[in-house]
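> forwarded from #structure-qc
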């Protein structure tokens, strides 16, 4: 504990505490004022006093367009695999050299690939039709 011997020391202590308090309060209020006056960074905008990030790299397209593009890509990939299976069936059939089991397997692969192509193309048409219906465009591509 501090022992104060005379009033001069008491006054000095009070003045020192007051000055310390003043310096701290002025410094913190300046920091607060600077923080409040500071604008958002370059990649953010001020919305109601809150900095909201912009330019996040995400698409600004509507969700139906994003889903339509995703389904179109998936169906195109599916169709490419089905056509690849059809080509593989043709190679199996050509390389069968009269072996009935290989010919039967190649025909089964060709039938399944044909079904895959039909499903892929019909899916593509259905997705395009739904996309056209949602956006109000014509049914034609």
């Amino acid at each position: 504990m501090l022992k104060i011997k005379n009033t001069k020391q008491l006054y000095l202590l009070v003045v020192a505490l007051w000055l310390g308090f003043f310096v701290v309060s002025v410094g913190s209020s300046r920091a607060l004022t600077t923080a409040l006056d500071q604008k958002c960074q370059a990649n953010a905008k001020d919305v109601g006093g809150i900095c909201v990030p912009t330019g996040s790299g995400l698409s600004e397209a509507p969700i139906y367009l994003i889903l339509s593009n995703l389904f179109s890509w998936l169906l195109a990939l599916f169709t490419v695999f089905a056509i690849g299976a059809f080509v593989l069936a043709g190679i199996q059939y050509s390389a069968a050299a009269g072996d009935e089991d290989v010919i039967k397997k190649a025909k089964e692969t060709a039938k399944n690939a044909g079904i895959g192509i039909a499903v892929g193309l019909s899916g593509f048409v259905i997705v395009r039709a739904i996309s056209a219906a949602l956006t109000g465009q014509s049914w034609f591509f």
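QC bot note: Confidence is low (pLDDT under 50) at residues 29-33. Residues 63-135 form one domain.
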